[in-house]
Amino acid sequence: MSWDLFNPFVSWLGTSSLGMWMGTSTARIAWLFVFHLFGLILLMGGVVFLSLRLMGLVQKTTPVAVAARPVYPVMTMGLVLMVVTGGLIFAGGAVAYFEGQWFRLKMLLLVAAVVYTFTAFRSVAFADEGRFGQAVNGAAGLLALLLWFGVAWAGRAIAYF
Amino acid sequence: MSLMDLARSIQDTDLAVALASSGYFYPVIEGTHVLSLALAVGTIIWIDLRLAGITMRGQSFTRLYSASMPVLLVGFGAMFVTGLLLFYARAADVWGSGYFRIKLILLALCLINVLVYHFIVNRDVAKWDTDVVPPLKARISGLASLVLWFSVVTAGRLMAYNI
């Protein structure tokens, strides 16, 4: 895949009136980061909770699907909040963000994490009790933790490197 | 000596100068501080949402509470240790931030809320452990915790633009 394919869109976004408006106010960006973190708490809190349950480390007496049911909508709300605020933050410095290696790594991990969370991970989390063994459940939970903490860490790295 | 003088003398120690100027300090310590949010606040919201009667309705509260506790302790432990280090490295700059002072007040309110929970709300938990909607005092406790922790995060994030 060539990242250059996105260049026309990125430069259009960066110079659009939305991009210019976002880029001109530190306070606006600061508050977007606040809500970006709120999204992280909703999303990653659910990921941690559910993954640890799948790994058999917490709430062993509650069936996985029962634990998962209330968690998924909140995780999804967190993800939507992160994508919307993240998209606006990106618009405020699109070309510069897009050039960054950590940003690109974050986007790759994000796509992998989202696809995984709403396909394989979801199937395991909502499976009838006992359909998958503890090894499959544990591996599914561990992979979710690695992917989402990878996304979060790459996101932090954009700020530092 | 004022608190600001004290903060200044901390920031001027060799260790603080070495920490603040190390290329690894912010990526590792601040990065851990932010990512620990997932464990700390990310976990406490489930206790709060259950207390407030918003989600996980009818599931045993005490079971959720005891299952969450180890994760919470690791998360808040990591936040506290990394937070102290972040303060130590730039004590005077941080103390000079209005958002930091707001954050301290909010953290004190969080502590009070925890104490109220333990000594008042939690006392008859056996009676409402699996209630779909917990009693009013539990709902207030849960909502207060949610509002307070999200406010702590807000003050903490805005600090970054202020020091």
Question: How would you sum up this structure in a few lines?
Answer:
The complex is a heterodimer of chains A (161) and B (163). Chain A has helices at residues 7-15, 17-23, 26-54, 64-91, 94-99, 101-118, 120-125, 134-160.
Report what the structure shows.
The complex is a heterodimer of chains A (161) and B (163). With 161 residues, chain A is an all-alpha fold. Chain A contains 8 helices and no strands. Chain A has helices at residues 7-15, 17-23, 26-54, 64-91, 94-99, 101-118, 120-125, 134-160. Chain A starts with 6 loop residues before the first helix and ends with a helix. Chain B has 163 residues and is mainly alpha-helical. Chain B contains 9 helices and no strands. At the A-B interface, α3, α4 and α8 of A face α3, α4, α5 and α9 of B.
What is the secondary structure topology, with strand pairs?
The complex is a heterodimer of chains A (161) and B (163).
Chain A: H1 7-15, H2 17-23, H3 26-54, H4 64-91, H5 94-99, H6 101-118, H7 120-125, H8 134-160
Helix pairs in contact in A: 2-4, 3-4, 3-8, 6-8
Chain B: H1 3-11, H2 14-21, H3 25-35, H4 40-51, H5 61-89, H6 91-95, H7 98-119, H8 125-128, H9 136-159
